[in-house]
Specification:
Elements lengths: L9 E6 L7 H18 L11 E4 L2 H10 L14 H12 L7 H11 L8 H11 L10 E8 L4 E6 H6 L7 H8 L9 E6 L5 E7 L2 H4 L3 H16 L3 H9 L5 E6 L12 H4 L4 H5 L6 H24 L6 E4 L11 H13 L3 E3 L6 E3 L6 H20 L6 E2 L2 E2 L4 H11 L7 E4 L7 H18 L11 E4 L2 H10 L14 H12 L4 H24 L1
Parallel strand pairs: 1-2, 1-7, 2-3, 7-8, 13-14
Antiparallel strand pairs: 3-4, 3-6, 5-6, 9-10, 11-12
């Protein structure tokens, strides 16, 4: 679609990770593309309608299929071809070890010391399909997250960065392999990029789902940054104009189905789990399932808040549903799930409960997609006909009511919200504890010895050990003041951590030796079977 400077509305397609469940968004996208073709002709494709397409893991693969060019510089895949691709290749990407008891035991033991699948077929397939096509060559902007385990931070690939920086202009095949490298399932992937000056950059990547299984928020971040660059504005100015304005975005977010309503885990059972149970339990991977669902749901909650709070909830369509567990032996079941999902009524996350609830009066997902298709078609036609006004994000470049209104808003005194956020990290909570003790001491120098961190922040948020610190800072004592001063946090950790995490070095050594022995002898064991 057109350049950012020509747009009044940004169109976004976001596709979750989910392994073989990529068939579900594949089914939905085939339906959407068919409706767009009814409106605008059989030659149109999904990539013609979206300014940004984002995908994580299997969603990154679908994203690339929709946006990578063929020899005619049109999308390599029509949306209707996505499911055929999955049905044809999935059995080879995720080969099954057989139904015998010994085969299952051997496969399980081998998975303790290496990925469940070797990834060779997937690597060969993607290299053959995509060749040396690079990120900068996609037909519309794509954003695909991965996670760099060497740097221990997310690595976000975008077409825009690929065009601007040769060292970020990775091959699409490498990006797809990386974002799909789910821990315990497929091996991590490494590659190196070079530029014309002989500089190089190495990447050591795993599945993007560990950072952003639902990549919708990355779209908002991308739009803000790119608009700021094009207009030479500061990021905070663009955040004010775009980031929280639901009228300026049309977002379609596709989940891959989730099984959380099965209630297959509970605290009573999990409280007895050790390392192995958290990684493998009755054929599932609890820690991965939990992280992926938590990541997707919190992003949906945040994006829904933006649109619902501004009464533009119809500009954000999230299609997600609980599904039964499907296996590679029953792929057609996923196609059926996707088809039935289209027939279900529109649901939206309840910001109070976090649960999806049916929205009365908005019809089925299929009807909502048809309405969304009409909006996309209208936006595309407007751009093609050059009938869009000379507005950027709704702000006129000429003197007029909009400009005056914007100037007034710029001069308004804004309330500043103060936020403290504390990461998770186990015993490393001592690090933010030290920083907070320093901060509180400086505040006390300014305002008196009685002040506390909680007196200065509107919101304090924390995850894991950060959640514990958050509570220590904000929970009231009998005098209705914070239970802990920041300087007391580290004393708490130093006193109690040895008892919370007692060391079991001998057991650990025995466990490592067992894994080494298992890996060394697994090949012979499977051969005997």
């Amino acid at each position: 679609m057109g350049s950012t400077s020509e747009k009044k509305v940004f169109t976004v397609l976001s596709i979750d990770g989910g392994g073989i469940r990529g068939i579900i968004p594949g089914t939905i996208l085939a339906f959407l593309e068919s409706k767009l073709q009814e409106l605008d002709g059989p030659d149109v494709r999904i990539a013609d309608y979206f300014d940004v397409i984002l995908g994580t893991s299997t969603g990154g693969l679908v994203t690339t299929m929709l946006a990578a060019p063929n020899k005619h510089n049109r999308p390599m895949f029509a949306a209707k071809d996505i499911n055929d691709f999955y049905l044809q290749h999935t059995p080879n990407i995720f080969p099954q070890s057989g139904d015998s008891l010994f085969g299952s035991i051997a496969s399980w033991m081998e998975s303790l010391t290496g990925p469940k699948y070797d990834g060779k077929y997937l690597h060969s397939l993607l290299n053959s399909l995509l060749g040396d096509l690079t990120l900068s060559q996609t037909l519309t902007t794509i954003v695909v997250p991965a996670f760099d385990i060497k740097l221990v931070q997310p690595c976000i690939f975008s077409t825009t960065e690929g065009k601007e920086n040769s060292l970020r202009n990775a091959r699409l095949a490498d990006i797809c392999i990386s974002t799909s490298a789910a821990p315990t399932y497929l091996p991590a992937h490494s590659f190196t990029t070079t530029d014309d000056n002989g500089n190089s950059r190495s990447f050591d990547l795993i599945d993007g789902a560990v950072a952003a299984n639902n990549p919708s928020m990355l779209a908002i971040s991308h739009i803000i940054r790119e608009t700021a660059k094009k207009n030479n504005n500061k990021l905070e100015e663009e955040e004010e104009k775009v980031g929280m304005d639901g009228t300026k975005m049309l977002v379609l977010s596709l989940g891959t189905g989730e099984a959380k309503h099965e209630e297959k885990y509970n605290a009573s059972i999990a409280s007895k789990w050790g390392l192995i149970n958290w990684i493998f339990d009755n054929g599932t991977t609890p820690i991965i399932d939990i992280f992926a669902n938590a990541s997707s749901d919190i992003v949906d909650f945040l994006v829904s808040t933006i649109f619902q709070s501004q009464h533009h909830k119809k500009n954000y369509l999230r299609i997600q549903s609980s599904v039964d567990i499907a296996t590679t032996e029953n792929l057609q079941r996923l196609v059926d799930i996707g088809t039935k999902l289209l027939e279900k009524p529109v649901s939206r996350v309840n910001l109070e409960t976090g649960k999806y609830e049916i929205v009365e009066g908005e019809g089925t997902n299929a009807e909502a997609l048809l309405n969304f298709a009409k909006l996309l078609s209208k936006e595309r036609k407007s751009r093609l006909m050059k009938c869009v006004d000379d507005f950027l994000l709704g702000i006129s470049s000429t003197k007029g009511p909009e400009c005056n209104e914007y100037e007034v808003r710029k001069k308004c005194v804004k309330k500043v919200f103060t936020v403290l956020s504390i990461d998770g990290g186990g015993i490393r909570g001592i690090i933010p504890g030290t920083i907070l003790a320093f901060l509180e001491s400086k505040l006390q120098e300014l305002d008196g010895a009685h002040v506390r961190i909680a007196d200065y922040f509107d919101v304090i948020s924390g995850t894991s050990t950060g959640g514990l610190i958050t509570t220590m800072l904000a929970a009231p004592n009998k005098h209705n003041r914070p239970m802990f001063a920041a300087k007391d946090i580290n004393h708490f950790y130093l006193q109690h951590t040895p008892k919370i995490f007692p060391q079991r070095y001998l057991i650990f050594i025995v466990y490592v030796v067992f894994l080494k022995f298992t890996k060394k002898n697994m090949h012979n064991f499977k051969r005997k079977i």
